[in-house]
Specification:
Layout: H1 3-24, H2 30-36, E1 65-68, E2 80-84, E3 91-92, E4 94-104, E5 107-108, E6 118-121, E7 126-132, E8 135-143, E9 148-157, E10 163-173, E11 179-184, E12 187-192, E13 198-202, E14 209-212, E15 215-218, E16 221-225, E17 230-240, H3 246-255, H4 258-277, H5 287-302, E18 304-305, E19 315-316, E20 327-329, H6 330-340, H7 345-356, E21 368-370, H8 388-399, H9 402-422, E22 434-435, H10 440-446, E23 460-464, E24 467-470, E25 472-473, H11 475-494, H12 498-518, E26 520-521, E27 526-527, E28 529-531, E29 537-538, H13 547-550, H14 556-566, H15 601-613, H16 617-630, E30 644-645, E31 652-653, H17 659-669
Antiparallel strand pairs: 1-2, 2-3, 4-5, 4-10, 6-7, 7-8, 8-9, 9-17, 10-16, 11-12, 12-13, 13-17, 14-15, 18-19, 20-21, 22-24, 23-24, 25-28, 26-27, 28-29, 30-31
Helix pairs in contact: 2-4, 4-5, 5-17, 6-7, 6-8, 6-17, 7-8, 8-9, 8-11, 9-11, 11-12, 15-16, 15-17
């Protein structure tokens, strides 16, 4: 090639590069971020019965109710639901509590194909559009508040002549037994024999409601539309607990401008999604990873609940989709809070407060709490692994709110030393999992890894009244406690408490040596639990073996050996790497063993982060990509993020729309 050709090629390359740079630097708009969230989860469901969990549901603002998009050809024009989490452990109030019937020129609108039925979901709202006989009906659902949704019905005449539209509302009932309907003028009232929450569906002022048993209909109304004219109607649906004021909420509804609320929600979600998407690690800049972050955000949003009943602060369910997860758990909360801190520190802080509201005087934190203890009692039989100081430090790192640290520091300190007072049977400075009631099952629950093989031969021992330990010292527990000392030291330094900071450093230094020497098997190159005396390993490679890498308590040489086993395809580098136990173990059983083989994304994250802590970044990147690619439904649109996954087949297991899985996907993909 001659010099002239080289020069021309070089200039062309420069022009292309500059163009690419300008395109990559183009600022994202609200629409750009919301478009990523479009149909990211599939909300299509027409419930067959009150407890139908065959589909996902959309919720926002911490509301205790949610909605779906009805399936086509089911005779419903409107939104499925609501699904009431105010009621029992979640039931559908109706197939559609305000299904609208529309007739144009004697033709009833349906959801058949020929009526051009479209449904779209976003992080901010739901939309449905239907066309018939020259009239477009667009329905938009948005959460006004934690108690109320607004639904706008926009009728547009697409014809060149006047069009007359007749419409009325009615419910599509389900047999729920506990729900009762009554009416007052243009208001439908929903009460229950099993909940103190009350529903209020408010139609336009000129609407007349007729009610027979549990079925209501509104009187048929007429809209006359000139060519190209649009007329709008707004209906509100409120489900509110007695600790909140219905009168205040009603006034708020009356003063609200629908379009202003919709724009507020769009901007709110755009800001949150931008915080996540723009904070991706450089190696995860492909759009598919942005979609994972958006799906994770929406998973957490759908599980968000405001304070109600026994719950004094807002927080996240592990999953609304599974009826026994309608509460808050302690180590779930710590993990949720870290995930939330990337885009909503206010909610992250309240998630922490929700559990510490139930801290005992001696420092103990309850395992799980519920809104309504007549459904299920709080579990004081055990606590969960100590990760709260980690969560508080991560939140503080995001917004530097020193008042928040001041609020929590004494509580964290009390909880930390509770472990040494109540869970160190032989008082040797190494702790054990245990229970408050002397039951072995609760002691296993306290580990968070309920039926892990390391506890198969465990026995329970009494420490003091109301305090019991299992007869083994666990490597993950003591690694967590080491990390907590490091994080408590950081928080103490922030508060100017140099004496405490020094104390934590000294304790951490001593504990580090104990962990490196007692729990590490030089022959296997793996960390195991031991007996109380520290003289025998409890064999069976599990995810607890890389917790010392996450806590940065292993030596570099130990980390190298652990890494080699983690990256072995016969052991942990499966289709979805870093599952809870080695695939070559005879008791490996992902389908029947809750913690005996499935991949839990929190444990996978601890493994990836552990690799990064010791400089194994290439392996960490490879594992992250394979985790996200291998876990079916994480990539792409439609399917939800699951509680755990089969590490060999990639199939999602157990609960759908699972919060801590979503939280740890955020941690995997974003910068600390």
């Amino acid at each position: 090639m001659d010099k002239k050709s080289i020069l021309i090629s070089f200039c062309a390359f420069l022009m292309f590069s500059c163009g690419q740079q300008k395109q990559s630097e183009k600022k994202s708009t609200t629409k750009d971020y919301l478009n990523v969230s479009q149909n990211i989860l599939d909300y299509r469901i027409t419930p067959k019965d009150a407890r139908d969990k065959s589909g996902l549901m959309f919720s926002d603002q911490g509301a205790w109710f949610a909605y779906g998009l009805p399936k086509k050809n089911k005779g419903i024009i409107g939104f499925s639901g609501p699904f009431l989490m105010t009621e029992q452990n979640g039931i559908w109030a109706s197939k559609s509590i305000a299904s609208i019937r529309v007739s144009v020129k004697g033709h009833d609108v349906s959801t058949k194909k020929e009526d051009k039925f479209q449904q779209v979901s976003y992080a901010s709202h739901l939309e449905q559009t239907i066309h018939i006989s020259g009239v477009e009906l667009k329905m938009t659902l948005v959460f006004l508040s934690s108690h109320t949704v607004l639904i706008k019905y926009a009728f547009t005449n697409k014809n060149a002549a006047v069009n007359e539209v007749y419409f009325n509302w009615e419910n599509q009932p389900l047999l729920t037994n506990s729900l009762l309907l009554s009416s007052d003028k243009n208001e439908l009232i929903v009460t229950s024999s099993k909940s103190k929450a009350v529903g209020h569906v408010i139609f336009p002022k000129d609407t007349n409601i007729s009610l027979e048993d549990e079925i209501y209909k509104t009187k048929r109304q007429l809209i006359s539309l000139k060519p190209k004219e649009t007329k709008e109607i707004v209906v509100s649906q409120t489900f509110i607990f007695p600790e909140y004021s219905w009168e205040d909420e009603k006034r708020r509804i009356e003063k609200t401008d629908f379009d202003a609320i919709l724009q507020t929600r769009k901007k709110e979600k755009e800001t949150q999604l931008k915080a996540l998407v723009k904070n991706r690690k450089p190696q995860f800049q492909e759009n598919k990873y942005a979609e994972v972050l958006v799906k994770s955000h929406l998973t957490l949003q759908n599980n968000w609940r405001i304070s109600a009943g026994e719950l004094k602060h807002e927080g996240l369910f592990p999953s609304y989709h599974y009826e026994w997860f309608h509460g808050f758990w302690s180590w779930d909360s710590w993990k949720h809070a870290v995930g939330l801190s990337y885009y909503d520190t206010k909610l992250a802080k309240n998630q922490m407060r929700a559990m510490f509201d139930f801290q005992n005087e001696d420092g103990f934190i309850v395992d799980c709490i519920y809104r309504d203890t007549s459904i299920e009692a709080h579990n004081y039989r055990d606590t969960k692994p100590p990760l709260s100081a980690w969560a508080i430090e991560k939140i503080y790192k995001k917004d530097k709110d020193l008042d928040f640290v001041k609020e929590f520091y004494p509580k964290l300190k009390k909880y930390h030393y509770w472990w040494y007072a109540k869970r160190d049977h032989d008082q040797d400075g190494l702790c054990e999992y245990g229970s408050t009631d002397g039951s072995l099952i609760a002691a296993k629950w306290e580990s968070g890894m309920d039926n892990a093989i390391r506890f198969d031969a465990s026995k329970i021992l009494k420490n003091t009244e109301g305090a019991y330990s299992i007869d083994q010292e666990s490597v993950d527990l003591n690694a967590y406690l080491y990390a907590e000392k490091i994080y408590l030291g950081i928080l103490a330094q922030a508060l100017g408490n140099l004496e405490d900071e020094k104390k934590y450093k000294e304790e951490a230094k001593a504990l580090k040596i104990r962990i490196q020497t007692q729990f590490y098997d030089n022959v296997d190159g793996w960390f195991y639990d031991t007996n109380l005396e520290g003289t025998a390993f409890i064999k069976g490679e599990g995810s607890e073996g890389w917790t010392p890498l996450w806590a940065q308590v292993a030596t570099q040489e130990q980390a190298e050996s652990v890494k080699n086993r983690m990256m072995n395809p016969k052991k942990f580098f499966t289709r979805i790497p870093f599952q809870t136990m080695s695939a070559d173990h005879p008791r490996f059983d992902p389908l029947k063993g809750y913690w005996r083989g499935p991949n839990w994304l929190d444990q996978a994250y601890f493994g990836v982060k552990g690799l990064r802590n010791y400089g194994f970044n290439a392996e960490a990147d490879k594992a992250t990509i394979q985790i996200i690619k291998g876990a079916k439904g994480v990539l792409g649109k439609g399917k939800s993020i699951r509680e755990n996954y089969h590490p060999i087949t990639g199939e999602g297991l157990n609960a759908e729309n699972f919060s801590w899985s979503a939280a740890h996907l955020i941690m995997l993909l974003t910068k600390d």
